[in-house]
Design brief:
Elements (H helix, E strand, L loop, with lengths): L1 E4 L7 H16 L5 E4 L6 H9 L2 E4 L6 H4 L7 E4 L6 H9 L3 E4 L3 H15 L3 E5 L5 H7 L5 E4 L13 E5 L5 H14 L4 E2 L5 H11 L8 E5 L5 H12 L5 E4 L15 E6 L5 H12 L15
Parallel strand pairs: 1-12, 2-3, 2-4, 4-5, 6-7, 6-8, 8-9, 10-11, 10-12
Helix pairs in contact: 8-9
Amino acid sequence: MNVFEVKPQGYCGGVRQAIQKAIDCRKAYPDQKITVLGNLVHNQYVKKALEQLDIQTVENSQRTRLELLDDIPEGIVIFTAHGVHPDVRTKARDKGLIVVDASCPFVVQTQAIVSQKLKEGYDVFYIGKYKHPEAESIYLLSDHVHLIQSEKDICDIKADKIFVTNQTTMSIYEIDSLFRAIHAKYPNAQIHDEICNATRVRQQAVRNLDPNQIDALIVVGDPSSNNTRKLAATAWESGIRTVIKVQNVQELNIDDLKGAQNVAVTSGASTPGYLTKQILRFLTDDSHQKEEICIDHIL
């Protein structure tokens, strides 16, 4: 079996920054209660590693970040890489919490662009995922922000000015298709692609794989990670016959690769490199021994 690592992959700059800010926060406040408002990044092993630093997480997919703040009565709150709605910042300040903002700069940039367009009187079509924290921080800004998850969401509105943008971790295929559909209905709409460079180059690296030369692609990442799901979707849309999604080496079944001669491995932007390296070692070791996962090696 020939095994190779698709590059680039793994942690993006925003994820690295968020994790480092959490680590630095614990060093700066060794005795304070520290709570992350939602999952710092979408990976359960990062969450477990933070717990070893006595950094707790409050998360509930049925509640907004604003509502989750009610569960943090004191201490330090860390805003995740996905960004937060302005009301969350205000509420945290009013509660007297110390705020550490780990928002990804690219997400903050998109929020700023949308806010400016709303001030200029635009209606905004925002392509994103309902209840994803990054999308939530934007589509809750105003009734003039319309969440678009598929073509059926392209609503009929009477607006002189329409601005179109997107969640930073969407599929490049999906975004292109929705941009074309919106433009067909609203030819004068301004379209601004905000897929972040890290997401784009990782998807493009998968897209560049020759499906005639790759028998299987393993995508390593948490099932809650949107960018990881979109990597897998990109592979399927590119014609790769077998796409296997796993969180770690323990989930990988070698029988799923039976007959595969050329196997590629990639991982989402919130996937610890340690987990991917374990899978690479497993695939290249003739004994196919699975290592135990050590949380100490995650951060």
